[in-house]
Amino acid sequence: MARRKKVYEGKAKILYEGPEPGTLVQYFKDDATAFNAEKKAVIDGKGVLNNRLSEFFMTGLAQVGVPTHFIRRLNMREQLIRSVEIIPLEVIVRNIAAGSLSKRLGIEEGTPLPRPIIEFCYKDDKLGDPLVAEEHIIAFGWASQQDLDDIVALALRVNDFMSGCMLAVGIKLVDFKIEVGRIWENDFPRLILADEISPDSCRLWDVETGKKLDKDVFRQDLGNLADAYTEVARRLGVLPTNSAPVTRPTLIN
Ligand code: UDP
């Protein structure tokens, strides 16, 4: 059913024109990809879970004063968001060594970092989202020094909020990725949190057992990805603890 004009289709989400100028509808697909889309699968219910979880985190962040693009959830798979100019960077915040940091620097996975570390990758699938330095970002005009200062402050606030949120339900926030967008208010630019925050873009480990509850379950074939995301949603109270699987729409909307 083609109701709206598609503006953009990514690996896990589709953006449609929104009902008002300056808005978009963000649709969460069930598609999972890893290793720059070399590994692909359709995971029943993943989109529904990520829509709910991203709503949960973005709403909480707004409540503590972090500006986000989220306006409201529309239905099981869609949310209304503000249209932004995306800064072409993946902003990664790390609390514990894992993934590419461990590989790159030879630091054993699971080693707590002395302080949160922020990294920037240039958003370009063809190049595999390479790690870049502030020098590159400023020299090539992807963001200004002031933007970077604002992005770092925003990323650290997201980290504090998310770490607390997750720890309260027995989960360690190992690392995560955010994207930031620019909006214009009365001719003044402002940077806000965009894209999504979900277990697709975080590493989440159970505090007690170390069990992975994020996309590494898919990357490393550790089990059922939807079960892991459902566990996160249930602990956070986003799904009732006794609800049936997310693929049964009537029980979760
Ligand atoms: N991440 C992401 N999208 C990307 C790359 C990374 O959401 O395109 C997230 C990833 O899920 C993890 C964090 O950013 O939570 C750090 O990822 P890392 O650099 O370790 O890359 P990976 O090992 O996933 O290739």
3D structure, described in words:
- Helix content is 27%, strand content 32%.
- It is α+β, with helices and mostly antiparallel strands and 253 residues long.
- It has two domains: 6-84 and 225-242, Phosphorylase Kinase, domain 1 (2-Layer Sandwich); 85-206, D-amino Acid Aminotransferase, Chain A, domain 1.
- The strands form three sheets. Strands 8, 9, 10, 11, 12, 13 and 14 form a seven-stranded antiparallel β-sheet that branches. Strands 1-2-3-7-6 form a five-stranded antiparallel β-sheet.
- A hairpin with a 2-residue loop joins strand 12 and strand 13.
- The protein is globular and about 50 Å long.
- It starts with 5 loop residues before the first strand and ends in an 18-residue tail after the last helix.
- Mean pLDDT is 94; it is low at 248-253.
